[in-house]
Amino acid sequence: MLEFYVMLAEGLRVLIAAGVCWLNFVTIDVFFGLPKEGGVSGATAIAQEVEKGGGALHGGYMLGNIVSSPDASAGTLLASCAVYAAGIPGGLVMALLVYIGNRICYDPGYAGTTGCITATFIVYAFTQIGFLATDFIAGMVIAILTIQGLSHVHASRLLATLWRWRSA
Amino acid sequence: MIALAVVAIIAALEAVRVVAERNTMRKLPYLNVVSFAITGSLMLLLPHPLTILACAAYFVGSTLESNAIASTWSGGIRKHE
Amino acid sequence: MNELYAILFGFITLLGGVTTAIYRDPFDKLISLSLLAAGIFPFIVDRGYVDVAAAAALIAPLGTIFTLMVCRRRARDA
User: What is the mean pLDDT of chain A?
Assistant: First the structure.
């Protein structure tokens, strides 16, 4: 019976961590204007195919940009991995690696590096109040599943709505 | 360890969706979820500071691969028309 | 590694390999090939060969990029 409660608490922590990660990376990506246009021609091609399948174009641009360069979602995942292994110094080293990866993929790299640094401090703060860094790794995978993995049509419409608020 | 189970099950589920999707460009977001899940599982399997390097190398490598596939696909189709 | 995880990651690898053989379109083949590569890394890291995993993770996309140059040339010729 005690084991059941421990598993229930862990599942609850993973869901809360998923919500925090979702808010972090969607806020930073929309703030840095990822849904505005495709960064490379591949991102534009993905956006056009998503629009052809019934989605919204600006949300499709954001899906394409997430696929074709490491942005704030990758920064959040890699920062929680690094905090799990090596604490805050690991997170800052990981921000440098994410910046290098962004430069390799022809991207300015502001969104990825900013997301990595903010996620480092957010994950560290949550580890001080009883959360584990592993909860944030699983939570980030759940968060990216809701954006990219379940339904491109609904996700792109949601992101286009957020972009309309941001640009208004 | 519920975290590793969640990550591994999501990876297998999304691999099935990559195979089931017919449109080539719409496969790539599902493939991106698979690479997120694999990156997470690498760190959960072996928590060691050097694994940071392996995670970053794997993630940047798979992103570069998706980027190259998508860019070549769009360029090839445009020349074809 | 637990048997559950070995089965799940082995399933990803097997699915990638079978669909790489089945698909006709070269881009679909390359996407399945990267699925095959994705399933292998947990097995490498689980044994502790982190440096091997980092090197393989950088070599696999380079192979894909060189294969894509051939695809692009075919598309231009056709």
Answer: 89
- What is the structure's pLDDT at A3? 83
| Extents of the domains making up chain C | 3-77
Once rounded to an integer, what is the mean pLDDT over residues A53-68? 89
Q: Which amino acid makes up residue A90?
A: G
**A14: pLDDT strictly greater than 50:** yes
What is the CB-side half-sphere exposure of residue A131 using CA atoms within 13 A? 26
Q: Give yes or no for B3 touching C (CB within 8 A).
A: no
DSSP string, A68-88: HS--HHHHHHHHHHHHHHHHH
Q: How many CB atoms lie within 10 A of CB C35?
A: 26
Q: Which of B25, B71, B77 is closest, CB to CB, to A40?
A: B71
Chains with ≥3 CB–CB distances under 8 Å to A: B
Amino acid at C39: G
C7: how many CB neighbours lie within 10 A of its CB?
Answer: 11
Residue B79's pLDDT is: 45
**A93 DSSP assignment:** H
C49 touches chain B (CB under 8 A): no
Question: Sorting pLDDT into bands at 50, 70 and 90, what band is B81?
Answer: very low
User: What interface predicted TM-score (ipTM) does this complex get?
Assistant: 0.90
B65:C65 CB<8 A: yes
Cα–Cα nearest to A159, from A65, A62, A64: A62
Q: Give dist(CA B31, CA B28) in Å, integer.
A: 5
Q: How far apart, in Å, do the first and last CA atoms of chain C sit?
A: 48
- Taking the Cβ of residue A20 and every Cβ of chain B, the question of whether any pair is shorter than 8 Å is answered with no
- A104-156 pLDDT tens trace: 877 777 888 999 999 999 999 999 998 888 999 999 999 999 998 888 899 99
Tokens at A20, concatenated: 């925090």
Q: Find, among A98, A94, A53, A78, the residue nearest to A144 by Cα.
A: A78
